[in-house]
Amino acid sequence: MTAPFTTLPLKPELLLTLDSLEFNTMTPIQEQSLPWILQGIDIISKAKTGSGKTAAFALGVLQKLDVDNYQTQALVICPTRELADQVAKEIRRLGRAIANIKVLTICGGAPIGPQRVSLERGAHIIVGTPGRLVDHIRKSTIKLGQIKQLILDEADRMLEMGFTEQLNTIIAACPGQKQTLLFSATYPEDIAAISRRCQKNPKIISVDQDEPNHAITQYFYELRSAKEKPQAVLKLLAEFKPTSSLVFCNTKQTCNELLEFLQQNKIYALALHGDLDQKQRDQVLVCFANRSVSVLIATDVAARGLDIKQLDAVINYEIAKEGSVHIHRIGRTGRAGETGIALNLVASTDIPALHRLEDLTKTRPRMQVLPNPKTPLNLEPEMVTLAIEGGKKSKLRAGDVLGALTKDGGILGEQIGKIDVFDFSVYVAVHKNIWKSALQQLQTKPIKGRTFKARRLM
User: Fold this and answer.
1) Whether 106 contacts 144, CB under 8 Å
2) I need a labelling partner for 377 at 20 to 30 A (CA). Which of 92, 126, 134, 327 fits?
């Protein structure tokens, strides 16, 4: 059992928020890192997605924040737009009891002009991706001279994606006197080199994370040829009937090929990879998280940092080239005391990667024959996503949409799922049996005195 948050010297507002969120005890990575973070010590932390690392550095940032000073005091760098968005949301959530905090997300895939205007107005905390941050540094539209804390989240993935030069540029733009927190799932030499550039006597923290999660049951299926994989996915979906499953492929091309095959077979599936623009990526993630899509196909880069709750199954369409990545993949199911399954397809092309996994885990998986289910495959999601062409910029809130559907539309609250509000869009999940009446209500009745365009998204 780890220690409670009340053992830490945190602001009363932060402890109040943690209590309201029912964050009672720390995760291992939080217990080991937060005392050092609060003391202002640089750290290198080996931590995977789902370990609680975001809350660890977010609490450290919020504890030291001076809200009366509108200079940027903390910079968080993330490898992807999705992770940056999630980190910013978590900081806002943990800091909601502290008045007037401004957290700004600066990522590619969005117009740079509005970002420049937002930067001119000031932000306490900036969360961004390397490429767009460098764009602003070169245009002198971002000021990092008052940075007190620099956080590199998933630093190993940023190096894998080729952001070394951009990271060096950002580090050079920050003051020498600052606290630097470096979070990484692995610790290659490149990470050590980055640390030497921007850290002073860092405390190295590592929670055992390359051990398989025993709440996850793994199955390995030997195939005669990689050509059997698409049909194999259908058989596994029919056998295990996961409500929500994440399929990992090694390339964008394979993602698209599998997506086309599954959609042809009437599976509610979407793909997430680097070719999607920001709006498309937002829509894919919303539909999967609110369970209006049963299957998400993704590359490791695109899926890095995703925090999908209640994920029933992970399917490794291709074995990850690195064993540690495999452990990271399957760790997305079987979380928070739940059980999960990991289904692995192994063709001859996967054998070298499988051997690397065996070397890491010191075990040899038992190969099985694909099941041949007799029952028909039916994974129609319970929910449907409706999109409204109006969002934060139109002063729409989740409560406004909920009220329009329940109070004005006569729809029961339990028939409405997640409501996600973006700057120019709102996505609401409704039960499949009432989506037509819900859509008609949104299309014809005003919300806050205005009528908005609405459509079915998925």
Assistant:
1) no
2) 327
Amino acid at 384: V
Residue 38: alpha-carbon gap to chain centroid? 25
Rounded to whole angstroms, what are the CA distances from 64 to 15, 95, 294, 374?
14, 12, 42, 60
pLDDT in tens, 104-144: 999 987 889 999 999 998 899 999 999 999 999 999 999 89
Strands 203-206 and 43-46, sheet pairing: parallel
Residue 178, CB-side half-sphere exposure with 13 Å CA sphere: 24
150 membership: H or E segment, kind and range: strand 149-152
Cβ–Cβ under 8 Å, residues 26 and 3: yes
* Cβ-proximal residues to 437 (8 Å cutoff; 6+ apart), any chain: 409, 411
Q: How far apart are CA 266 and CA 264, in angstroms?
A: 5
Residues 169-197: pLDDT tens digits? 999 999 989 999 998 877 677 778 888 88
For residue 399, what is the enclosing H or E element?
helix 398-403
Write down the residue that tokens 């020498």 correspond to. Answer: 176
- Calculate Rg over the CA atoms of the chain: 23
Give strand pairing partners of 25.
Answer: 4
10 closest CA partner among 65, 76, 52, 91: 65
Cα distances (Å, whole numbers) of residue 305 to 298, 301, 308, 313 = 12, 9, 9, 17
Residue 302 has pLDDT above 50, yes or no: yes
**Listed range (153-162, 265-274, 418-427) with the worst mean pLDDT:** 153-162
Residues paired with 313 in a beta bridge: 245, 341
